């Protein structure tokens, strides 16, 4: 009888043993760091993916490319924004509305030379395919102009014709010279040049802001370009004026904070262009993504980053992911200059996290960062800084060794 009962229960017992959900906790398969990060980000509205401020860490870039793919495919993120000039992506949106297909080269150019390396290469066709299919919207959030882009080479010729009378030719000549930086003795660069250019862009913004002027989708994008150009050149003029009025060597945070504010304004505007709520990946340096920098023990505590505005508006709907490394090397993105990383100090966040662990990475989520308390660490610029890091970011991935990116041939 007992033997018969055993035979009847055997299939049930076997099924329980083979079912991971029924297995004892100690037999459960541990999640990888990448899986834990996807789980933490999946239900957020904004995933701010940071990186060290030099933008030249290959392991970080490779991880972020794969993380972007997973967030789109597994978590239904449908928007990709990056810390680069907004102009090329606005142009891409105009081309799409005209029914044109956007090439991978145009997407790569819009991302810009800072990330022109092999590690980023897999991201380009992934984005281009979805941009053309209309399943993903991409945008730049910076107001700066990158070299070799539509903004530098073509934008002026498309925008200046909106100006009227002799102003059109006057502005075209000065702005084109500035875009190509072709100054000489006959046409020197002086503090009056950006002031004149600012006047041109303000005139353009005024023309494009007239009732009915921005009625078409392309005109709306052009007005947004003009607004960014005004903010960009205003900052240049203001910084020159403030620099001349301050003692030599004085660090002025106006330019940093004004740029971050401008990036948040672009982020807000881009999100507002969709009639439905979007889930956005925001790719930028951690020093911009950070929720709060006032807690640092360095001068960076004076910065007001994009992430501070995001945190104020979106709260727990946003997640800031930072990156760091225990050792290795990195470059100044796009410049070719390389730097070695000293091994992590034993008392540092990186040293503590990697100590006693054999894995190649170590992910610290928010609760782990809070438990570790204020520590010296280097996720912002590979310079040691002390802070309660749980107030700066929501999670931190630490590589045992960072490596150099592989630049694309020029």
Automatic annotation (TrEMBL):
The keyword Metal-binding does not apply. GO terms for biological process: response to antibiotic. Keywords: Signal. It comes from the Bacteria. This is Erythromycin esterase. It comes from Corallococcus terminator. The lineage of its organism: Bacteria, Pseudomonadati, Myxococcota, Myxococcia, Myxococcales. Gene3D superfamilies: Biosynthetic Protein domain, EreA-like (biosynthetic domain), EreA-like, domain 2. The keyword Amino-acid biosynthesis does not apply. It holds the Pfam family Erythro_esteras. InterPro entries: Emycin_Estase, Hydrolase/PRTase-associated. PROSITE patterns: PROKAR_LIPOPROTEIN. Residues 1-23 form the signal peptide.
């Amino acid at each position: 009888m007992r033997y018969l009962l055993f035979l009847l229960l055997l299939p049930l017992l076997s099924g329980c043993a083979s079912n991971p959900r029924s297995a004892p906790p100690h037999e459960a398969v541990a999640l990888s760091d990448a899986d834990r990060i996807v789980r933490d980000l999946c239900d957020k509205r904004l995933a701010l993916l940071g990186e060290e401020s030099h933008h030249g860490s290959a392991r970080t870039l490779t991880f972020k490319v794969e993380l972007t793919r997973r967030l789109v495919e597994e978590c239904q993120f449908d928007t990709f924004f990056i810390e680069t000039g907004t102009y090329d992506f606005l142009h891409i949106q105009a081309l799409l509305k005209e029914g044109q297909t956007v090439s991978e080269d145009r997407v790569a150019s819009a991302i810009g030379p800072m990330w022109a390396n092999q590690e980023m290469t897999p991201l380009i066709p992934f984005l281009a395919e979805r941009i053309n299919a209309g399943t993903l919207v991409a945008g730049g959030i910076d107001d700066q102009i990158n070299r070799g882009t539509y903004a530098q080479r073509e934008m002026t010729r498309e925008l200046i014709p909106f100006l009227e009378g002799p102003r059109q030719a006057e502005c075209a000549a000065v702005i084109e010279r500035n875009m190509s930086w072709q100054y000489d003795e006959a046409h020197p660069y002086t503090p009056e040049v950006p002031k004149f250019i600012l006047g041109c862009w303000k005139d353009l913004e005024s023309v494009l802001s007239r009732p009915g002027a921005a009625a078409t989708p392309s005109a709306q994008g052009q007005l947004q370009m003009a607004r960014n150009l005004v903010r960009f050149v205003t900052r240049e003029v203001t910084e020159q004026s403030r620099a001349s009025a301050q003692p030599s060597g004085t660090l002025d945070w106006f330019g940093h904070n004004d740029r971050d504010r401008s990036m948040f304004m672009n982020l807000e505007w881009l999100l507002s262009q969709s009639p439905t709520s979007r889930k956005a990946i925001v790719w930028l340096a951690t020093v911009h993504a950070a929720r709060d920098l006032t807690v640092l023990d360095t001068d960076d505590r004076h910065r007001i980053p994009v992430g501070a505005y995001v945190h104020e508006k979106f709260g727990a709907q946003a997640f800031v992911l930072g990156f760091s490394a225990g050792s290795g090397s990195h470059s100044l993105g796009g410049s070719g200059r390389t730097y070695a990383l000293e091994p992590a100090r034993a008392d540092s966040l990186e040293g503590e996290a990697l100590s006693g662990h054999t894995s190649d990475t170590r992910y610290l989520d928010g609760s782990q960062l809070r438990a570790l308390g204020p520590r010296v660490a280097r996720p912002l610029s590979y310079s040691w800084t002390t802070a309660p890091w749980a107030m700066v970011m929501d999670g931190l991935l630490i590589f045992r060794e960072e490596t150099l990116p592989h630049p694309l041939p020029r």
